[in-house]
Amino acid sequence: MLKYILLLVTLVIGTTQAARMVCYYDSASQFREGAGKLSLQDLEPALQFCSHLVYGYTAIDPESFQLKPLNKQLDITLNNYPNITALRRNHPQLMILLSVGGDRDLGEELPSSSYLNVLENQAHRNAFINSAVALLKAYDFDGLDLAWQFPKNPPVIVENKLKRFWRGFKGWFTSSKAVDENAAEHKEQFTTLVRELKDAFHSDGLMLTLTMLPHVDANLFIDVPSTINNLNFVNLGSYDFQTPERDPKIADHSAPIYAMSDRDPTHNIDYHVQLWLNNSAPSNKLNIGVPAYGLSWIMSVDSGITGFPPIERTLGKGTAGKQIRIPGLMSWPEICEKLQANKELSGEEARLRKVGDPIKRFGSYAYRSADDEGLNGLWVSYEEPDTAANKASHAVAKNLGGVALFDLSLDDFRGQCDGEKYPILRSIKYKL
Known about the structure:
Blueprint (H helix, E strand, L loop, with lengths): L1 H17 L1 E7 L13 H4 L8 E9 L6 E3 L2 H6 L2 H6 L9 E7 L11 H8 L1 H17 L4 E5 L13 H11 L11 H20 L4 E6 L5 H4 L2 H4 L5 E4 L13 E2 L17 H10 L7 E6 L1 E5 L13 E2 L16 E3 H8 L13 E3 L8 E5 L9 E5 L2 H13 L4 E5 L16 H9 L1
Parallel strand pairs: 1-2, 1-16, 2-4, 4-5, 5-6, 6-7, 7-9, 9-16
Antiparallel strand pairs: 2-3, 8-11, 10-12, 10-15, 13-14, 14-15
Helix pairs in contact: 5-6, 6-8, 13-14
């Protein structure tokens, strides 16, 4: 009996140790000033928890269709590429991938056009593949992550049943524009690109992964059964379902695990996991995407005082934080500071009221109602260590491959909140 117990324990430990912890590192964080800047030295403490480090981002040259650094000065002149892959010396378990796209290559009027042009032409695909192999080998990366910039679904307005019925009624008399009129062709061509990349990578043992960006419809663009076997794994962009950029007038949970009442049924993690599983994707090749940040909206006087979502009549992106300095986006340490602020502070510095998630389904939010003058209102949907751990537990319960964290530069890498560095990353890793 003891022999079988030991065997069971060994199997359980082995499964736990094999769980995949994919850590994204956006090189743009090195251009921030002050406490928000994440240097390679600051990155080091996180790597003990990561099985894979995804370094972003590279771009596609719109004329040559070759893979190119998004910031040549940083990546080549200042040796960031070799410095990144050199991190493997102290962390031999770490696989380091280079990512292309990720919504960072947005210099064109239509940011997906170069990506679609690569798919549509064999010569363009060859140029992309050959340049990818050369770049990965030159700087000793372990593989390529395709954060491919397909056309995105339009925003879906959160509304009550009466409004939804009226909009549906009007829809009988109007036609909506297709996300991509050539989606079927692009779907087939992307399958071909993935197969050709895998063949080109085989002799050098390079990895190939896919990151599904938020609001990209996998049904439209990914032939899962034909593609999945040529990918090492897939990172699901299961977050940013509701954002102040796409939905400035309505605030809501941005990354729930399960569907919420009277919301778009696709706006949750479980839907996207099931979509891939129902299309023959092995569960161990799927990683849940978890953000290390929150999204914020400005509450108006007409938004009410309860804070219970969805919050209507918001006024767009919330005020930028002191570290990341991006309106509508707050890193975990910026949010933590607002939650722990002195009760005596007022105005924009006043403390946010936190509402947790005891049922572990939708996530936490915090808010500050607008004052009598209609100012200083703020509503934030965010990730914290506890909710990130809930999502890791969901990945374990579904027998998934692991979790992908977006990204390390938005976690509390300085330990400002409670003295512990990378608390969101740690909470995920401990659950896995």
